[in-house]
Amino acid sequence: MTAPLALCVRHSRPGAQSVPESVALRVPSDVNHVEAVVELMIRHCFAGQSPSTRAVFRLRVALAEALANAICSGNRQDPAKGVTVSAELLPDLIRLSVADEGDGFDPATVLSPTDQDALERECGRGLFIIRNMALQVEFNERGNIIWMTLPRC
Amino acid sequence: MGFSKTTSGNGVTVVKVDGQLIVGNRQELKQLIHEGLEAGERKFVIDCTHTGYIDSSGLGALVTISKKVRESGGDMRLAGLNDDLRSLFELTKLDSLFTIAKSPDEAIKGF
């Protein structure tokens, strides 16, 4: 039995017609939460929108990869550590952040997984895929927070 | 959600991936293929007709499984990828590593 995920949604104005402005969620370091978190974030990030299937796919892929990286590589699945997922919702864009409590890494040192000698490696495609799904990708200096800008329509 | 395994008339093992192939369940697929190899199976089709999403861990698992099958003298093919999934294989250039058929039937007949 796992603890329920607690989502914090901030609306532009109270009431039934209001639309969310931001969504935040703290996730335990357990890969079994990834699917539920992705579905929850998709539902809230596109609330009141009519997104293209491609926009939904891009958010799904980028968030799932960033979460898996944060849980496995960042927090090393340490149950004492968590991952914070936040999304700032703009009319046409989603500014998504995923923060872990690990030591961070230098994204410049990540090799391309599409080089011929890297094709048969099992790992190392996550960040490459994120960079191709998001419009913009940034990290903090420590390398434990990733910001991804994605289309919302 | 999950994996189911059947055998076609010409001895091809077809593994259906229902839902997602991701970091949380990739080991289950690896185990399933490993057990097939142990039992002497050598021809595999991974049927993705009902697969919504494959993450990088799932892609990596497919790469490793395919390599293991080839090293055992067999062959593994993918089938039924939707457009989004196919775009992931193209993006990562894994489309050059796998035989990808439009449907499971096409993949089975190709053996």
Question: How big is the Rg of chain A?
Answer: 16 Å
Q: Report the β-strand fraction of chain A as a percent range.
A: 25-35%
Distance between the termini of chain A: 36 Å
* Mean of pLDDT of chain A: 91
How would you name the oligomeric state of the polypeptide chains in this document?
heterodimer
Molecular shape of chain A = globular
Straight-line N-to-C gap of chain B = 28 Å
**Whole-number radius of gyration of chain B?**
12 Å
Structural class of chain B: alpha/beta
Series of secondary-structure elements of chain B, N-terminal to C-terminal: EEHEEHEHEH
Sheet with the most strands, sense and barrel status of chain B: 6 strands, mixed
- Helix-strand pattern of chain A: EEHHEEHEE
Q: Percent helix among the residues of chain A?
A: 25-40%
Q: Estimate the helix proportion of chain B, in percent.
A: 25-40%
Please state the structural category of chain A. alpha+beta
Q: Which ranges of chain B are low-confidence, i.e. pLDDT below 50, for 5 or more consecutive residues?
A: none
Secondary structure layout plus pairing:
The complex is a heterodimer of chains A (153) and B (111).
Chain A: E1 7-11, E2 20-28, H1 34-45, H2 53-74, E3 82-89, E4 93-99, H3 126-133, E5 136-139, E6 145-151
Antiparallel strand pairs in A: 1-2, 2-3, 3-4, 4-6, 5-6
Chain B: E1 2-7, E2 13-21, H1 26-38, E3 43-47, E4 51-54, H2 56-71, E5 75-79, H3 83-91, E6 99-101, H4 104-109
Parallel strand pairs in B: 2-3, 2-4, 3-5, 5-6
Antiparallel strand pairs in B: 1-2
Helix pairs in contact in B: 1-2
